[in-house]
Specification:
globular; binds adenosine-5'-triphosphate; binds magnesium ion; alpha/beta; Rossmann fold; about 240 residues
């Protein structure tokens, strides 16, 4: 099958801790895939390797058949792989609007293109009323929305989102869900790490579940969530 992303046998350890242990999965174009699993199961480490932040000990990553293992984040951005962080990253002493412009220039948009796109995104993300505030003054949820905007100044082929909904006001969570759903309708592809199961069920038809660095479930979200091994992994975590 035609795959947008292929992950083959990816492994990473930190000292004696095998954070990611021979992980393989694929993402076909146009899908929203959930990446779930208990705390410490290796989800962020996988995203770090997919986005060029960490070099894998072993394994390969392909985008549209091209080997992108070990490419730097700037190179990956040019190939259309964009990453949102679990800890939000915006420039705090620059206005929200200028944060978007900076992201536009970094992706080779002209000033005019950046202003036009930034205006449209500010409206869509309901940040218009705070666009000239320093990004550091925005609430946590507004910063996350701004980071969505920064990732989408130029639409990525693959957006990697690390817990975008965590600790965000429900109203903003709804804006994020709408934002992702709209782009899904347009054919964009997402890998979304989340602990928010209702949203995972709503957004992701398919998901991959990790535990102790390994993939323990991969397929239709409903089926993965009902798998005894997946249930046991989550319950095990709660009883720790
Ligand atoms: N830079 C690092 N140095 C050392 N250990 C790390 C590092 N990053 C992650 N780890 C360890 O690797 C394991 C996987 O961590 P990771 O952050 O990938 O999990 P996660 O699934 O994203 O968890 P969470 O749901 O809590 O965000 C954990 O045991 C963690 O302590
Ligand atoms: Mg994480």
């Amino acid at each position: 099958m035609n795959q947008l992303l292929k992950i083959q046998d990816l492994s990473k350890s930190f000292g004696g801790n095998q954070a990611v242990d021979h992980v393989s999965f694929n993402i076909s174009p146009g899908k929203i895939i959930g990446l779930i699993g208990p705390n410490g199961s290796g989800k962020t480490t996988v995203l770090n390797m997919l986005s060029g932040i960490l070099i894998p000990d072993q394994g390969q990553v392909f985008i549209e058949g091209r080997d992108i293992t070990n490419l730097k984040p700037s190179k990956l951005a040019k190939l259309g792989v964009m990453r949102m962080f679990q800890m939000t990253r915006v420039f705090p002493r620059v206005s929200a609007f200028d944060n978007l412009l900076i992201a536009g220039y970094a992706r080779d948009l002209s000033f005019e293109e950046s202003v036009e796109k930034a205006d449209a995104l500010m409206q869509e993300l309901e940040l218009d009323h705070v666009k000239f505030l320093d990004a550091g003054e925005l609430s946590g949820g507004q910063k996350k929305l701004l980071e969505f905007g920064m990732c989408f100044m130029r639409s990525p082929k693959l957006a990697l989102l690390d817990e975008p909904f965590a600790a965000v006001h429900p109203k903003m969570r709804e804006i994020m869900v709408q934002f992702i759903s709209e782009r899904h309708r347009q054919g964009h592809t997402f890998l979304v790490v989340s602990h928010d199961m209702p949203i995972v069920k709503q957004l992701c038809e398919e998901c991959v579940c990790m535990n102790n660095g390994r993939v323990i479930g991969n397929g239709l979200t409903k089926e993965v969530l009902e798998s005894p091994e997946v249930i046991e992994a989550y319950l095990g975590g709660h009883h720790d």
